[in-house]
Write a structure and sequence with these properties.
With 465 residues, the chain is mainly alpha-helical. The protein has 19 helices and no strands. The radius of gyration is 22 Å and the shape is globular. Bound molecules: tryptophan.
């Protein structure tokens, strides 16, 4: 069995695939509006610190667990723990994948719709009018049929790539889409910087104003560091399981983090230079992308092209992340149940699309979680990003410290590293501190959310911050 397991074709291919998972709606959609509302550069700095302290150790942990076992999460935890309970962390990951992809696929459909909307000149009528643009966007996402059709098309791309397998599907796809994202973003940044007044956007993103930073933005930056690296549901365990022993994991992890961060900064720069040049509101929140940008693209030269390119990279970023989510599920059924790749992907891709349809409908007329006073879409979003992913990530860190042993973890990290004169004792201590700190921090985020949910007040507010 083990010999037949698929492997990445090249180191570059793996790095592009893994950073393709990391780079997604989180980088291009979420990061800019979070930074916009939380002090711009001050937020960016906190976010970068969080990526290094919380992101790096857990990313390395997931990659190591995957490569060590050559198995996807459920099998991996089971094998390393030798007991059956830890495999539940793996099941939690598979469950998170179901939950996330259901609503991620809906937003993926929106990115496709907006690419075509821009290409056909649809933004022209929205020029300079955020109210109208807001209405157009709401009536689109709330309608019954249109968004579902786009979602199905998006999911079909996703299923099509995963059916082709690790090397000819995921890796080839990432090798085409990731460079395209980088190049097109580069053009958008140059365009943004060349607009009069665009540089004010740079200042906004990179010049810190610490007075705008409050405790809740720090919690937000922490949570996002986690989300943006696709941690906590075994994606990186699964991708790590297709690696051979020659790869230098530390190097790869740093590359993934650099690419992910670089693309978030580029996206932020492109968006804020354009927003500032056109005098739009930088702190307009989640609607910044789908509502504000369509009103300003028609005002810049060649707006149809720039708008179309922008939504096209958003689509590609969403797709490279979505495939990594589906792969977690497919790999589980291949590894643990002996299914064929085709059967696993087709069946569960289909089930997820179906659940996604209910997410989309919940924004309009049919909300299956109406009794909870929340749309099914938001319910799945909050359930995964506030609870399932952080819990999965914190448990992974605890697993490494308590069960697997940091010593073996270090062995795995050093497999494939040429440098022989390393101070093992020191490295073990550094890893321990980082893992303990990151599990504590993540634990705190979860507690904070729970207290908000149960008592209607987050911890910061309770202690009077
Ligand atoms: N990292 C992705 C983004 O920035 C989102 C994401 C979170 C994700 N967890 C994931 C993607 C797990 C794939 C797998 O948009």
């Amino acid at each position: 069995m083990k010999n037949n397991r698929e492997q990445w074709g090249s180191r570059l291919g793996f790095i592009l695939a893994a950073s393709g998972s990391a780079v997604g709606l989180g980088n291009i959609w979420k990061f800019p509006h979070m930074a916009g509302q939380n002090g711009g550069a001050a937020f960016t700095i906190v976010y970068l610190i969080c990526i290094l302290i919380v992101g790096l150790p857990i990313l390395l942990g997931e990659l190591s667990i995957g490569r060590r076992t050559q198995l996807s999460p459920v099998g991996a935890f089971n094998r390393l723990s030798g007991s059956s309970n830890w495999k539940w962390v793996g099941y939690l990951g598979v469950g998170s994948a179901f939950v996330i992809l259901s609503f991620y696929g809906v937003v993926g459909g929106w990115t496709l719709k907006y690419t075509i909307f821009s290409l056909t000149g649809g933004f022209d009528s929205l020029s300079g009018s955020p109210e109208l643009s807001g209405q157009v966007f709401s009536s689109f996402i709330e309608s019954s049929f249109q968004p579902i059709i786009w979602q199905i098309v998006f999911m079909a791309f996703c299923i099509g790539i995963i059916i082709k397998g690790v090397k000819s599907g995921i890796e080839e796809g990432a090798k085409i889409m990731m460079p395209l994202i980088l190049i097109i973003l580069g053009f958008l940044v140059v365009k943004g910087l060349s607009l009069e007044g665009g540089r004010k956007g740079l200042e906004f993103l990179f010049k810190p104003k610490f007075s705008d930073l409050n405790p809740s933005s720090i919690v937000l930056a922490l949570g996002h560091a986690f989300f943006t690296l696709s941690l906590g549901m075994g994606t990186m365990i699964t991708y790590g399981s297709y690696l051979n022993k020659k790869q230098n994991l530390m190097n790869s992890a740093i590359w993934i983090i650099l690419l992910d961060t670089f693309i978030a900064m580029l996206a932020g720069t492109a968006i804020f230079t354009i927003v500032f040049a056109m005098g739009a509101d930088p702190s307009s929140g989640a609607g910044l992308i789908f509502v504000v940008l369509p009103t300003i693209f028609p005002q810049i030269g060649g707006g149809i092209i720039w708008g179309t390119l922008f939504f096209f990279i958003l689509f590609m970023a969403a797709l490279t992340s979505a495939i990594s989510i589906l792969e977690v599920i497919t790999a589980y059924f291949i590894d643990q149940k002996g299914w064929s790749r085709f059967k696993a992907t087709f069946l569960f891709g289909g089930v997820i699309t179906l659940v996604g349809i209910f997410c989309s409908l919940s924004l309009g007329n049919l909300n299956v979680t109406a009794f909870l006073n929340i749309t099914f879409f938001d319910f799945l979003d909050e359930l995964s990003s506030k609870y399932m992913l952080p819990i999965g990530g914190a448990l992974t860190a605890v697993f490494i410290i308590n069960k697997w042993s940091v010593n073996t973890f270090l062995d795995e990290i050093l497999t494939g590293v040429q440098e022989k004169h390393l101070n093992r004792g020191l490295l073990i201590n550094v890893l321990k501190v980082l893992l303990v700190v990151s599990s504590l921090i993540v634990g705190l985020i979860i507690l904070n959310e729970l207290s908000d949910l149960l008592f209607g007040s987050s911890l910061q507010k309770m202690v009077g911050l």
